[in-house]
Design a protein that fits this description.
CATH architecture of chain B: 3-Layer(aba) Sandwich
Oligomer: heterodimer
Number of domains of chain B: 1
CATH topology of chain B: Rossmann fold
Distance between the termini of chain B: 11 Å
Number of helices of chain B: 6
Radius of gyration of chain A: 15 Å
Largest interface: A-B, 37 and 36 residues
Structural class of chain B: alpha/beta
Radius of gyration of chain B: 16 Å
Strand order of the largest sheet of chain A: 2-1-3-4
Largest sheet of chain B: 4 strands, parallel
Number of strands of chain B: 6
Chain lengths: ~120, ~180
């Protein structure tokens, strides 16, 4: 498989950081600056049945990234996330509940090189 | 303003088929338009990622059009339709942002080549692009129809389309948002 522009870094991000309220921490902007992909977690006010279905899909996708050595982190919290991850056999990854944009950007930017990136090497160009 | 249901890879290019990621993670040209217009973002699951994995080959519709993949897409569509139903019930405007040319996420252009199969080798070019929806989008349409919910307005990311132009892509998304 050829190396493309992907970062091999994926953050599971609580909805409040994907769609931040006024004055909230902008998780998308931090992910852009630090070069991370985002998997959005269901909003806190979703009914349990709706949220559980979405969390199941999030966990399956997280498992695929985890198995291939991508770096995974959790930004914020979401009830049911730990249980959904446990069902696919992975632990809750390193996490942050950021109090500021800078704190989140520094957390993402300070992570070690993903195992998958070491396998593929740097992006061309 | 309303809620934009976006293809998974708009926020996570790591989910793309190998050699398909256009940037590190978030595809800003689409996200920027949605945010500039005050739309809430809802990321849909990637139909191909959990089914065929990160090491999947590039593929056309015919290679994914199996009962098993349609069943997988129907499961995802039910999850997404649950959120769409919630938002529509709250009186929100809804749009769908797909990936043109994708066998699963195409909204007006998908890919088709009934002869493709076997050893993955084919010439450069895009003869497989055809009008139509990808398989997940078809299953979502079916699910929303079964719930009596109208299908949202659509737009798509257009990297796979010959002559891709980022400004035109953004203008098409803005047009879909305006309705």
């Amino acid at each position: 498989m050829k190396r493309d522009e992907r970062s091999f870094r994926v953050a599971l991000v609580a909805d409040r950081y994907v769609n931040p309220p006024p004055g909230g921490v902008d998780g998308i902007a931090a992910a852009v600056e630090a070069g991370w992909g985002v998997i959005q977690l269901p909003a806190d006010d979703y009914p349990a049945e709706v949220a559980q279905r979405l969390l199941f899909e999030v966990a399956e996708q997280a498992d695929e990234f985890n198995r291939h050595g991508y770096d995974l982190v959790l930004v914020g919290q979401r009830d049911g996330m730990a249980e959904a991850l446990a069902r696919v056999g992975i632990a809750v990854p390193d996490a942050i509940t950021p109090e500021s944009f800078v704190a989140l950007k520094d957390f993402l930017g300070g992570r070690p090189s993903p195992q998958a990136l070491r396998r593929f090497g740097p992006a061309a160009g | 303003m309303g809620v934009a249901f976006v293809a998974h890879c708009m926020l996570n290019q790591n989910s793309k088929v190998g050699d398909g990621a256009h940037c590190a993670g978030v595809y800003s040209p689409v996200v920027d338009v949605l945010r500039a217009n005050g739309w809430r973002i809802e990321q849909m699951p990637c139909p191909e990622l959990a089914f065929a994995g990160l090491n999947r080959f590039w593929a056309v519709r015919e290679q994914y059009d199996t009962a098993a993949f349609r069943g997988h897409c129907a499961r995802l569509a039910a999850a997404v339709a649950g959120v769409i139903a919630l938002r529509v019930g709250q009186g929100e405007d809804v749009v769908l942002i797909g990936v043109e040319g994708s066998p699963s996420m195409g909204v007006t252009i998908t890919s088709s080549d009934p002869r493709r199969g076997g050893r993955p080798e084919w010439p450069e070019g895009s003869p497989e692009l055809v009008s139509g929806e990808g398989i997940f989008v078809e299953e979502l349409r079916r699910e929303l129809n079964s719930r009596g919910i109208g299908f949202p307005r659509v737009a798509g990311e257009t990297h796979a389309i010959p002559g891709h132009d980022e400004a035109a892509e953004q203008a098409a998304i803005e047009s879909a948002l305006e309705g």
